[in-house]
Amino acid sequence: MPEKNVPTSPPTCPTDLSLIDSTYPVGVPLTATYRLGFAFKTINLRLPVILTKIIDQLSRDKNEIGESCGQEARDDVKIVVGALAKFKNEMVTNKPIYKTGCKIWDSYLEHIAQLYFEGVVEDVKWYFAPWLHVECYFYKRIHDAFQLSNHLKSFDPFRKQKEDGFECSKKSSAQLAEYVLSSDSSDAVLQTLLEVGLWGNRCDLSLSSGEEVSQLGNLVDQLQGLRNFVLCDESANFWKILKDAKTANPDNPLTVGYVLDNAGFELFTDFCLADKLMDRVDRIDFYVKTTPWFISDALKTDFDWLIERMCSGDCSDFPVLVKLAERWKGYVLSKRWTVVESEFWTYPHAYFEMQDADPELYSTLTKHTHLIFKGDLNYRKLIGDVSWKPDTPFKDALRGFCPAPLLSLRTLKADCIAGLRAGLAEEIESKSQDWLVSGEYGIMQHAQ
Ligand SMILES: O=P(O)(O)OC[C@H]1O[C@](O)(CO)[C@@H](O)[C@@H]1O
Ligand SMILES: [Mn+2]
């Protein structure tokens, strides 16, 4: 690991509430301290908007919630809204990141305080703490507000947006389904679906603060035009490892650990890729979150909903969707597709910390022939949300995390990146100033 690129010493996080009018220096965890970084924009603008939307939506829907969950649930709405409003005030006034009473979170907070704030927990504040920690804490606190209620503990404030995300992309989904059903399992088709999976990641709802993002048009037809926007394509290693593993041990079951990101259209693209992958591997384990996360992230309920929805009368206009979903149901029933829930994905930890924080999950991941990590947040956690020099080797940025060979498919929506060839970042920057956060560019990076 080249010492010069690794942020061994913590950044100086000013505790005098002064922000810095620049973007991040090299080698520090991203924080909102730097006014010109995307972290600042997120904490200053995007997160308050997301929270306000939840509060408004709950207030608007309280009668409906009362009708479907009972009068007491209607009263619960008031409790949750009160807690969220108080929480919003903490955030916008840069209060400390308070303890939550949850051991794993509280000790992580102490760890952050030790690393960056000389152990003073009260100094870990919204604008000065590492962005990754703060943004994860944001969703944890939203979830905690619902835990104060009696009847809304498992209420998902983002469910409707996630479902709408798929509904609005139905036509494109049907075109993709047609492609999947009518094509063979050649290398070219599999590569096409890998790229489809990559670009499916443009459809997250967090970047848009919850505004509808749908796929329009036939994604397969759009791939040619999108190829110039792939900044790093190491996907050949993925296919090679699967092939070599089969040749070396034809009787050993091959499995892929597929760490999902967003529900809705992105999940649909993941299923299309997984469908064709079944000709190469024996089993795919899909890793999902356990609580509503970054608006559109997939839960087990979203996984099940999508397949059910496709089989239901609501998709009868698109028989290809029904047909494909029947096949996917079969994979689930035969356990060739499994859903694995783990709380670790909703911890604030970067992945280089997984082995200590959740040795069991780490060891489960080591058993896969290959791993796929979808999306921007997974990428941020892979490289520790650090402002690496963009040509830092991806493997170095992982800081030892590599439980099995892994492929990251990510469209760029946060200002951290590693693994680019020297000079490329500058080239792209001269064409598009917001290339790191616009979601226009993508990477397929591999490590083993
Ligand atoms: O769904 P993804 O691809 O992980 O994206 C999540 C989004 O949330 C962010 O973490 C910022 O809110 C960005 O990194 C990204 O825009
Ligand atoms: Mn997401």
TrEMBL record:
Residues 44-426 form the Damage-control phosphatase ARMT1-like metal-binding domain. Keywords: Hydrolase, Manganese, Metal-binding, Methyltransferase, Nickel, Transferase. One of its GO terms (biological process) is DNA damage response. Its cofactor is Mn(2+); Ni(2+). Gene3D superfamilies: 1.20.930.60, Uncharacterised protein PF01937, DUF89, domain 3. This is Sugar phosphate phosphatase. GO terms for cellular component: nucleus. Metal-dependent phosphatase that shows phosphatase activity against several substrates, including fructose-1-phosphate and fructose-6-phosphate. Its preference for fructose-1-phosphate, a strong glycating agent that causes DNA damage rather than a canonical yeast metabolite, suggests a damage-control function in hexose phosphate metabolism. Has also been shown to have O-methyltransferase activity that methylates glutamate residues of target proteins to form gamma-glutamyl methyl ester residues. Possibly methylates PCNA, suggesting it is involved in the DNA damage response. Its EC number is 2.1.1.-, 3.1.3.-. It comes from the Eukaryota. It catalyses: beta-D-fructose 6-phosphate = dihydroxyacetone + D-glyceraldehyde 3-phosphate; beta-D-fructose 1-phosphate + H2O = D-fructose + phosphate; L-glutamyl-[protein] + S-adenosyl-L-methionine = [protein]-L-glutamate 5-O-methyl ester + S-adenosyl-L-homocysteine. The keyword Hydrolase applies. One of its GO terms (molecular function) is protein-glutamate O-methyltransferase activity. Subfamily III proteins have a conserved RTxK motif about 40-50 residues from the C-terminus; the threonine may be replaced by serine or cysteine. Belongs to the damage-control phosphatase family. Sugar phosphate phosphatase III subfamily.
